[in-house]
Design goal:
The chain is mainly beta. The chain is 0% helix and 49% strand. The radius of gyration is 13 Å and the shape is globular.
Length: 123
């Protein structure tokens, strides 16, 4: 059982990469998923979350209107489309599963985490 993120890298400010998180979970469609990020010297913070059906989403205020979270329950994959990137978006990005149908902002409510993918935004 694992989550594997991909899609990170070095991006110029204003860029639009898409992160993917592939889940080897037979029960993927039963639970909400979240994206978190952690910059050097800072605590891990919630970025975005999506409910088990892909209908309801929630975002951190600083990424609203720029980031979009989505999921494909056939492919067992959750995505984070990031637009208009800023240098302050530089961080390691992690996807995570919560055993709840709706996403939550608290990292402690997520029980399965990926290894993370680094996104570095150059100005």
């Amino acid at each position: 059982v694992q989550l594997v993120e991909s899609g990170g890298g070095l991006v110029q400010a204003g860029g639009s990469p898409r992160l993917s998180c592939a889940a080897s979970l037979r029960t993927f469609s039963s639970y909400a998923m979240g994206w978190f990020r952690q910059a050097p010297g800072k605590e891990r913070e919630f970025v975005a979350g999506i409910d088990k059906n892909g209908v309801s989403t929630v975002y951190q205020d600083s990424v609203k209107g720029r980031f979009t979270v989505s999921r494909d329950n056939v492919k067992n994959t959750v995505y984070l489309q990031m637009n208009s990137l800023k240098p302050e978006d530089t961080a390691a990005y992690y996807c995570a599963r919560t055993r709840r149908p709706a996403p939550r902002r608290e990292a402690g409510l997520y029980d399965l985490w990926g290894q993370g993918t680094q996104v570095t935004v150059s100005s």
